[in-house]
Amino acid sequence: MTMPSTGYLLGALTVILVVTFGLRALPFAFVAPVRSSSLLRFLGAHMPVGIMVILTVYTLAGTPLTVAGAAPAAAALAASIGLHLWRSNALVSIIGGTGLYVLLVQLWG
């Protein structure tokens, strides 16, 4: 089996370089029009709450309706809501509520 020629390798590297640079630079070409978008401002303001609602529904959908199943979920839900009202930080709320849920499930189960 023969090795590809130097010209072929340089051509392939040039194509790789141009495509990679283009893919990295392309998002910056759309920054100015997107910053003034009212839709993106709306999504930026409401997506963290929406994600928390989706995670809550997903968690509670598989929770058995017994004391052992519902108590950790209810405590974690209350902790998440409390953390969010206290800190107004979705990441803190999600991590705190999830951590408490995992801890209670391990201790209770």
From TrEMBL:
Q: Which UniProt keywords apply?
A: Membrane, Transmembrane, Transmembrane helix
Listed name of the protein: AzlD domain-containing protein
- Which InterPro entries does the protein's record reference? Brnchd-chn_aa_trnsp_AzlD (IPR008407)
* Highest taxon listed in the record's lineage: Bacteria
Q: What lineage does the source organism belong to? A: Bacteria, Bacillati, Actinomycetota, Actinomycetes, Mycobacteriales
Say yes or no: keyword Membrane present: yes
Q: Which residues cross the membrane?
A: 6-26, 90-108
Instruction: Cite the Pfam families for this sequence.
Output: AzlD
